[in-house]
Amino acid sequence: MLSTSAESLEKRIRVDGVKTGRVTALDLPGQIGEAVSLGILSEAEGAALRDYDAKVSNLLSVDDFAPHELCAGGGAGATPGS
Q: Residue 7's CB: how many other CB atoms inside 10 A?
């Protein structure tokens, strides 16, 4: 499963990088870059974790709405029951 392999890579970054002070970035993309540079992750592992992070971000962004879509009370163009 993709999440299982990503979890093990993230754990390696935390244990071998963040906890030792070698990885100082606060965001996952920055941590991945530092971990690859330090040899904690291989280029292929870094690419796989970046891809996983992008997929998760894409899934989470599904709930993004335009401001006009959030207006309650049915402005112009509203349909009944919406």
A: 13
